[in-house]
Design goal:
By secondary structure, the protein is mainly alpha-helical. It has 8 helices and no strands.
Length: about 170
């Protein structure tokens, strides 16, 4: 039960929460407007910000576990590497999407802006697809890592055992 609550609070709410809040516009503006706003927010790459934050949280948890000697070091190193790679890719895509948006605004290119809004631009659909997959990858990695770390017990260091009055061979 504890892991389910952790997954809901740390993985589902950051990813799904903003979309649900945009859905609150439905009674005021209608379902079509709310659906379009949710679609545009994902198409514009806003899901990447959640991916970056979730990656940072997973990296922090893995480093913390590594320092406390919880979990297998090889597994923790692999998880840290995967999450750093996901955060790096998401950050680069956010930067490129921001530059693209800036260039479109600077040149007042109505054709490309209209293609983006209609969803006909292939770059937009690819951006959204990659954001779904990266977000799914970090959610799965982070969730599995947390469950694995909760199940692995912390092994006290020898210096801590001596400090607590436990002696080897007693």
């Amino acid at each position: 039960m504890k892991n389910i609550i952790w997954i809901m609070m740390n993985l589902l709410i950051p990813v799904v929460g903003p979309m649900l809040l945009l859905g609150l516009i439905t009674p005021i503006r209608g379902f079509g407007v709310a659906k379009q706003l949710i679609k545009e927010s994902v198409d514009d790459g806003q899901l990447y910000w959640s991916t970056i934050a979730l990656s940072a949280a997973a990296i922090y948890e893995a480093i913390d576990a590594f320092q406390e000697d919880r979990g297998a070091p090889l597994y923790l190193g692999l998880m840290i590497s995967i999450c750093v790679l996901i955060a790096l890719v998401a950050s680069i895509i956010v930067m490129l999407a921001t530059l693209d948006s800036y260039n479109q605004n600077a040149t007042n290119s109505t054709d490309s802006t209209e293609a983006r809004r209609n969803g006909t631009g292939s770059a937009v659909s690819n951006l959204a697809k990659v954001s779904y997959w990266l977000t799914l990858a970090v959610v799965v990695c982070s969730g599995l890592q947390h469950i694995f770390l909760c199940q692995s017990s912390r092994v006290p260091l020898l210096s801590e055992a001596v400090t607590l009055g436990v002696r080897s061979g007693s």
